[in-house]
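Subject: sequence -> structure tokens, single chain

Hey, anyone have a minute? Need the predicted structure for the following. Not urgent.
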Amino acid sequence: MPISLIQPERTLFSYPRYWAECYGTAPFFPMSRAEMDELGWDSCDVIVVTGDAYVDHPSFGMAIIGRMLEAQGFRVGIIAQPDWSNKEDFMRLGKPNLFYGVTAGNMDSMINRYTADRKLRHDDAYTPGNVGGKRPDRATLVYTQRCKEAYSDVPVLLGGIEASLRRIAHYDYWSDTVRRSVLVDSKADMLIYGNGERPLVEVAHRLAAGESISDIHDVRNTAVMRKTALTGWSGVDSTRLDKPGRIEPIMNPYGEDLPCSEGELPAPDAPQPVTVRAPKPKPWEKTYVLLPSFEKVKGDKVLYAHTSRILHHETNPGCARALMQKHGDRYVWINPPAIPLSTEEMDDVFGLPFQRVPHPSYGKAKIPAYDMIRFSINIMRGCYGGCAFCSITEHEGRIIQSRSEASIVREIEEIRDNVPGFTGVISDLGGPTANMYMLRCQSPKAEQSCRRASCVYPEICTHMDTNHEPTINLYRRTRSLKGIKKILIASGVRYDLAVEDPRYIKELAEHHVGGYLKIAPEHTETGPLSKMMKPGMGSYYRFKELFDSYSKQAGKEQYLIPYFISAHPGTRTEDMINLALWLKKNRFRLDQVQNFYPSPLASATTMYYSGKNPLGKVDYKSEDVVVPKGDRQRRLHKALLRYHDPVNWPVIREALTAMGMRRLIGIRPDCLVPPDGFDPQCAASRSGKAKPAATRFTPAKTQNPAAAKAKPAGQRVNRGKRPV
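Reply:
Had a minute. Here:
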């Protein structure tokens, strides 16, 4: 069983239920007054405003939050994808008794609306009909403003990934500037970051008990605006780059802890009281870190990187300190992360009465995001990989929270028996990663006090459990269920962990791959990989060797689909050329490729903006990171990933010529692109070979690690020393 970190004051379902529990469970949360009338409701206690279509499925945030609050006895209404041009649509369910909950949806609204090249998307997978434009830019800000216009006296609580990743001053890629905390700009009353069940339930019950939102400032996983630090907390000043200093609390002149006056001293012969000393507090308890202010980080990129480094060190709920950042004349106060949910609590959350289908008002309209996940199962939360370009750690945390086998089996049976269109195939058993289920730190002391950004980089921590037996047992039990034809694994496999337990790879290859398995090396070169916090290609080759061997033993022809990122901080053009040469040698032809997307709060985004590396000590003399910027360079890096596309040949030829690498232009096997004037169709006709079909990739029949080391002369590029 997973090791318990520290215990919360009370469990998720231990609160006395609110009086409105007498209304029972709603088939779907109402989205109109007519639906409220059918349920017999005169009002909603909580109204959730979301940028996604309402799908009553545990993969959608509004459904989990709604069912969680319903289980506490509250009446919940949903306003999904409202017309934000005025306040009217935000009043359709009337005035909420407790608060509005505002979320941009399962995705950041800016990432949802724009590509990595800042071009407008014309589709939206979370909208019926895949129609774009149903949510505004910076939806959290817009929705909050309309809620305040509708009912100015109703508290507004922010949640979801957009708010979570903007809880402090942050670099905003779309405006190319540092923006204030979304809590400041939105003028909301509270922000709940990360997975919000525990803090949301506590806040809801405290509001229902009559507390004012302005008095609720001490809940874990929340951020609020303050004029001063919380009473009784001491601070560490980290507003500058020199050694942090402690902020001494001002002594309370009326405090009970002051020494008695001389006349109040006990008589010498009086019995002396026995003093029982409380346990010595941990150094992080009741301690906050004063960060550089918004104004400072906006004007100084090194201070911005310094601030990012501190935030990423304060993510372990066992030892994280509160954070405090000045914005103007007030402070954003960020409480430490909440205690992760236990397996029992996870089971209870996922066992809530979800309908697992979209709201009936959408009729037969397709919602692509739902179609993708309707037969999938979320078995865990969190990720301890700490990849620099990913925001899972900042949102869900590093502690793995897993469901029990029994809970997962019950959900599969529910899908089998009740979800329309089920054919016997579960599309995924996963989460942020496929193979971190039930994996936790084996040392309670280390787990509670560790501040590492990753448990697997630069190498797997000796305290980390790598035994995949719980996952293997889960796979075996679920695929043996009656009516289940196939259990597929679609979540990305962390292959550096998998090679530590080859039994898992064997199980995967024999039973759970539908011909292709996606994994994410992200790059082949040491420089970019070191900034991504990703393992070297040695782990990839080892995994591929085992995967191919077990696939062959099972009599199956199966291939790995590798994912790569172009233009990531730390990537030189030479690195991208080497990656392109590796792809060509191994006969990979990537169809869809991803240019690095600087999402808020990620460490790689800090590198992109500041040019400094927050993974190490930050000062004005610390390492400068090479950052591919500008449309021209970013387009070139992306083009190199698609070296095989004739559309990209001119820009690649131009770059190779300018870099003195014309030797890579030609029709020899060790060349990257053909010369100008080359006609691929004529060449194919003369050679009697058909033009290759357009596929996501062309898998290599053999991808021998030993052969990969033997590079043809002139193939590898290394201009100057590459970082190790």
